[in-house]
Write a structure and sequence with these properties.
Structural class: alpha/beta
Number of strands: 11
Radius of gyration: 20 Å
Number of helices: 11
CATH class of the largest domain: Alpha Beta
Strand order of the largest sheet: 5-4-3-6-9-11-10
CATH superfamily of the largest domain: Vaccinia Virus protein VP39
CATH architecture of the largest domain: 3-Layer(aba) Sandwich
CATH topology of the largest domain: Rossmann fold
Distance between the termini: 60 Å
Number of domains: 2
């Protein structure tokens, strides 16, 4: 076994657990030494460099590895990420899969609200080049990163810098997708440090007094006939009811691969 791989795993296991530490060790060595996994395990001549030690110190402070390297691989896309954007999650990839399975129309106008890194919009445009996809975010910094990612992955999107909670008029679309802030402030105590200390708070948290704020506002505006949301697993039924109150009578709650109610669909009839 490669001694450097073992060193990284042993250093990180107390912080992340053995399995996650091993995955991090593979990624670090792939990134730094450009080795594949077989080479990492078999070669014994790879030193523990100063660069690796600096990375380990940052990881011990719970800084996400994606931010340290400045990119992540998500659903086959290589995406630039920074503390201005959320790190794309596996459950968000499931949301994209649901839309693509559901929407077989040749041509659709699609709006991604709160695009962040652009992951959802880019994935949809990459897989469905005949669609017209628009990415919206309130943050100019996030939109700049999303635009870099679109170019990085060879797609062209339409861009909007806008506050969805405002009163500016909006175009209408066939499909709207959003992964808005949905973690209640009272749930912060259950969050890990790598999220709380490094990822953008405004993209994560919402007031306990009005946790469905973004869902309700989007539904009220009737931007699209079909809405797809990533949601707080504890508020999926409340979210569906919120859509129903605003005319989206055909609602579906969908579980992720872990059996958590993490996605909600609504359709205008």
């Amino acid at each position: 076994m490669n001694p450097t791989f073992c060193h990284i795993t042993q250093r990180l296991s107390p912080f992340y657990g053995e399995q996650e530490a091993r995955e991090m060790a593979f990624w670090i060595m792939e990134e730094i030494y450009h080795l594949n996994r077989t080479e990492i395990l078999l070669r014994k001549d790879v030193p523990v460099s100063d660069e690796i030690e600096r990375i380990l110190l940052r990881l011990e402070q719970r800084e996400p590895l994606q931010y340290i390297f400045g990119h992540t691989c998500w659903r086959g896309l290589d995406l630039h990420v920074s503390p201005a954007t959320l790190i794309p999650r596996p459950e968000t990839a499931e949301l994209v899969d649901w839309i693509e399975t559901d929407c077989q129309d040749e041509r659709l106008r699609v709006l991604d609200i709160g695009t962040g890194s652009g992951c959802i919009a880019i994935a949809l445009q990459k897989d469905r080049p005949q669609w017209e996809v628009t990415a919206l975010d309130i943050s100019p910094q996030a939109l700049e990163i999303a635009q870099q990612n679109a170019k990085r992955n060879g797609v062209e999107l339409h861009w909007l810098c806008k506050d969805i909670l405002g009163s500016d008029p909006m175009d209408t679309y066939d499909v709207m997708v959003s992964n808005p802030p949905y973690i209640r402030n009272s749930e912060k105590e259950n969050m890990s440090r790598n999220v709380l200390d490094y990822e953008p708070e405004t993209a994560l948290f919402v007031s306990d007094n009005d946790p469905l704020l973004f869902y309700r506002r989007i539904a009220e505006r009737r931007i699209a006939k079909r809405l797809y949301f990533e949601v707080n697993e504890q508020l999926a039924h409340q979210t569906a009811y919120c859509l129903q109150q605003n005319g989206y009578t055909h609602t579906i709650i969908k579980q992720d691969i872990y059996g958590k109610e993490r996605m909600v669909f609504g359709c205008l009839h």
